[in-house]
Specification:
The chain has about 210 residues and is an alpha/beta fold. The protein has five helices and eleven strands. The strands form two sheets. It has a nine-stranded mixed beta sheet, with helices on both faces. The protein has a two-stranded parallel sheet with strand order 7-9.
Length: about 210
């Protein structure tokens, strides 16, 4: 059985991914800065690895086959943390993955990361960080999948999405639960790599769209 490292497992999407992997009895290692943030996910099969993403966390990759990078600096921090987490920690993760011969690296990015200049946005530093992290992963030689969800909501997930970009921003919103479900599905597709998917709320089942 392959083992998956979830980087940012205590975040909203990261926790949903980790919970799903536990429920499906997948072998998972959750990387968090503070393990107490996963107290509500206590499970004898879940391995928790405490590390600071601003320091060396290469040991987290020992014995790992797949990586999901879903860490983020958060909306309450400034551009400095965006640079250190969303870009630099992502870059280090790719380097560690390369040395560990990772089979699949799933990067949770953002809509707009393809071209940060295309829209006027107060989160442009974040989009630039995501853009550069995505580009670094694509050039690394590590087998990858990049997902770029639209604006995130806490609505109940229905497992229904579309990968065709809607014409209006309002239609681009997607529940975090459906992003998590999409990531877990992509993780299971061993033969699907080197792809970029934009994710939006829609009417199609995840397993019928992400192929």
């Amino acid at each position: 059985m392959s083992k998956t490292l979830i980087i940012g497992a205590s975040g909203q999407i990261g926790k949903l991914i980790t919970k799903t992997l536990i429920e499906t009895q997948e072998d998972a290692r959750a990387l968090v800065r503070d393990k107490s943030k996963l107290d509500d996910l206590k499970d004898s099969e879940l391995e928790i690895f405490e590390a600071d993403l601003e320091k060396d966390f290469s040991r987290a990759f020992d014995g790992i086959d797949n990586v999901i990078f879903v860490a983020g600096s958060g909306a309450s921090t400034g551009p400095d943390k965006t640079l250190l987490i969303d870009l630099w920690a992502a870059k280090k993760s790719v380097d560690y993955a390369q040395k560990a011969n990772i089979k699949k690296f799933i990067m949770v990015s953002s809509i707009g990361a393809d071209d940060p200049d295309a829209i006027e946005s107060d989160i442009k530093p974040y989009l630039v960080a995501k853009h550069l992290a995505d580009q670094y992963l694509m050039a690394s030689g590590v087998p990858y999948i990049i997902v770029r969800p639209g604006p995130l909501t806490n609505d109940a997930g229905e497992g229904k999405i579309t990968i065709k970009r809607p014409s209006s921003r309002e239609e681009m919103a997607i529940p975090r639960a459906d992003v998590a479900k999409s990531v877990v599905f992509l993780l299971s597709k061993e033969d699907l790599n080197d792809k970029i998917f934009e994710l939006f709320g829609g009417t199609y089942d995840v397993d019928n769209v992400l192929v």
